[in-house]
Amino acid sequence: MLRLRVLALLLVALPLTVLLGAPQVASAGTFTELTCSPTTGAGNWQQVDTYASGLTVGNMCGGLASGPNEPQGPTNEGALFAEDGPNITAIIPNGAEAGWRFTAPEGLTITGISYWRSLHAYNQQSLVPGLWTGEGTTLESCKSPPEGTHECNSLNNQGLITFANLNTNSLFFGVRCNLVDGDEYCGSSGGMNHFAQADLYSATVMLSESALPSISSVGGAPWSGGVLFGQVPLTLSASDYSGVASVSVRSSAGVLLGGEAESCDYYDSVPCPDLSLATINLNTMQAPDGPQNLILTVQDAAGNKSTETSPQVLVDNNGPSPATNLAATLSGSEIILSWTDPVSPPIPIASATVALCSTICTASAVSASGVARIASPGAGIYTVQLSLTDVAGKTSAPASTTLAVPPPSMKPPRKPVKKLQATVEPSGHLSVAGPVPRGVSGRVRVCWSSMRDKRMLGSRCATLHVKYGAISVIFHTSVRARRGKITVTVSAGHRLLARLTAGKLHTA
Fold first, then answer.
1. Is 422 exposed, middle or buried, given 0-12, 13-18 or 19+ CB atoms closer than 10 A?
2. 507 occurs within a structural domain
3. How does pLDDT run across 270-325, given as a tens digit for each residue?
4. What is the DSSP string of 414-467?
5. Reduced to 3 states, what is the DSSP secondary structure of residue 52?
6. Is residue 401 located within the same domain as residue 426?
7. What does the angle CA 397 – CA 405 – CA 359 come to, to the nearest 5 degrees?
8. Measured between alpha carbons, how far is 305 from 298 in angstroms, rounded to an integer?
9. Does residue 187 share a domain with residue 39?
10. Is 506 a domain residue?
11. Domain count across the chain
12. Of 173, 188, 209, which marks where a domain is finished?
């Protein structure tokens, strides 16, 4: 891809003010470098005078960017100028020159120029003002005619002169002695009426560049392939023939996490700085949690970009999603908890915490397996909250449910039963108790559901340990659930042990 770069000796006063504040990229590979009026710097134009005895150059930048209107004749005011020397009569040899040369920085090629200028020649055909490429091609000149007025005037009339499709490494603006028609030398006028005069008020030089920015030494947590959260620093080095104009980092989804625009001076031959172990702070809160790659983009002054992609990182600002299907049931002196962990959390879940809240909250750490047991508190209505914590220490929002623990006097009496029964007590508790078939040991799963007119009014499940060949569990049922038909199933693994309707027994 061809990269263009533009060097400007100011265009017009008002647009230039805007351009200086924020140089505009014209297209891929182009940018603007400024010099001379309305400022006083010569920028990347270097003074040349090979015969100071008869030729002179000077810098009087600081006028209008478009230069003065010159119906009265040429003027040096506000210009980089070159002319035959005042107050000295000198013999100027063939090939002598005085003026200003722009040389493209390393890696760049000049492709065009637009400028405001004034050219004036008088009485000598061999002493010529003009603009030439480094290879000697004349882009324009003002040559004194051999007869008549013996005067050539190409004065500044506020019109922009443009030369495009160039391919050169330098430009020269000024006056040259190029002997013609038998002249033996060029002469200096020795007065204020110069034989040759060239004034450059402002210009734009277009350049092309073939290399992309170079990125190196990328480091820090964002490039380590680990877990990221909050603000994290990224370090990098980058260089380019035209310097580094900006750096940005985005997530693989295109979300901007951080970056900065560098301080570029478009009056300089290399307008933007190179970066050496610069630090860019990234705000990972802008990215969604989960695995992703980060994309580093470095843009040069010409608008060309190089990118690098990080190893996969895990962004974890918010922790796992809350658990679902949380259920809490009483089983003797224990509360049996069951829940479903979130599917594919950003990073693995390490533990869970249960809080029983009434007037105060009491927290207990439990495993993150989806089933846990904790000691039953005293009688009361409790809010049960379950929070999940991942391996990076980030905790989810709590999932919650309610649990009623009846006072001892309201607990159904424990009496021996000869068969498995399911009974809804007047208090609203569903009691499931009785023996299980012989040979069944370990854990069984007890679930109830309430249906009415094909609508589900409630359900819960609990996992119990078989003790002495029997099970016993109490569920709290809502008023709504008690309005339907309550069915209870007891199973061991894939084996259905019993299906009960509250108050009736149906063996499998």
1. buried
2. no
3. 889 999 999 999 999 999 998 999 999 999 988 899 999 999 999 999 889 999 99
4. ----SS-EEEE-TTSEEEEEEE--TT--SEEEEEEEEEETTEEEEEEEEEEE-B
5. coil
6. no
7. 55
8. 6
9. yes
10. no
11. 4
12. 209
